[in-house]
Write a structure and sequence with these properties.
It contains 9 helices and 6 strands; from the N terminus they run βααβαβαααβααββα. By secondary structure, it is an alpha/beta fold. It has a 6-stranded mixed β-sheet. The longest helix has 23 residues, at 152-174. The relative contact order is 0.21.
């Protein structure tokens, strides 16, 4: 059996403030740190072990992975970081409050920005100092790869080839992988693994800090997928994610 564990980073400061975050490099909230530690404790308690982990270039995912590995006494394992696991880029929306945008433009429009498959938000001007083209961490990935905005379709297009070329071969080699990343980059992997339609993936809401386990047979065919934790708590957390775009 092969096991892949995906986990969306713990609650960030901007998650707490209900802001569009995207590629903005915000930190974990205190609650997010606790979520990460609880995830590590749960994985250890359930007998999981990992020889290798992946994460993005953004500190909320990097720190989530750190706290998980610390709880599991696995800080020594190698970690691969890739920009391809970054969150979907939300363009000009980054930093804006989702509920305020819903009150201004309507919940339907915010739902389109957050959950439509192929409609990206308005792009961030490349001259804007918030644009990732100005950040050292992206200077070696090629300007053509640095987005000004993205739809989920764009995010899928950058993560699925990386999954196929890098992550899946590592899973075959090591049999277990842990991936700490972001809601939309993980949804891209999940869409591919479960062969979900463009419309079905829109309704998938990933809560922060909850391990999502995928199990594969010897032919790398998916046999089972499940969240670790209390089902009722997970359901409530998913509903909370879904309601972020509602006016208040």
């Amino acid at each position: 059996m092969y096991q892949l564990v995906l986990i969306r980073h713990g609650e960030s400061v901007w998650n707490k403030e209900n802001r569009f975050t995207g590629w903005t490099d915000v930190d974990l909230s205190p609650a997010g740190v606790e979520e990460a530690r609880e995830a590590g404790s749960l994985l250890k308690e359930e007998g999981f072990d990992f020889p290798l982990a992946y994460t993005s270039y953004l500190k909320r995912a990097i720190k989530t992975l750190h706290y998980i590995l610390e709880e599991m006494d696995l800080l020594w394992i190698p970690v691969k970081k890739t920009w391809r696991l970054n969150e979907k880029h939300y363009g000009e929306l980054q930093g804006l409050n989702k509920s305020e945008m819903a009150a201004r433009y309507g919940e339907e429009q915010v739902h389109i920005w957050r959950r439509s498959y192929d409609v990206p938000p308005a792009p961030l001007n490349p001259d804007d100092p918030r644009h990732p083209v100005h950040q050292d961490r992206y200077k070696n990935i090629g300007a053509e790869n640095i987005p000004s905005t993205e739809s989920l379709k764009d995010t899928v297009a950058r993560i699925v080839p990386y999954w196929q070329d890098e992550m899946q071969p590592d899973l075959r080699k090591h049999r277990r992988l842990l991936v700490a990343a972001h809601g939309n980059s993980l949804r891209g992997i999940i869409k591919h693994l479960k062969q979900m339609s463009d419309s079905d993936i829109i309704s998938l809401n990933l809560p922060t800090g909850i391990p999502y386990v995928f199990e594969f047979d010897e032919n790398m065919q998916l046999t089972k997928d499940y969240f670790l934790g209390d089902p009722e708590k997970i359901r409530e957390l998913m509903e909370k994610v879904a309601s972020q775009g509602k006016a208040r």
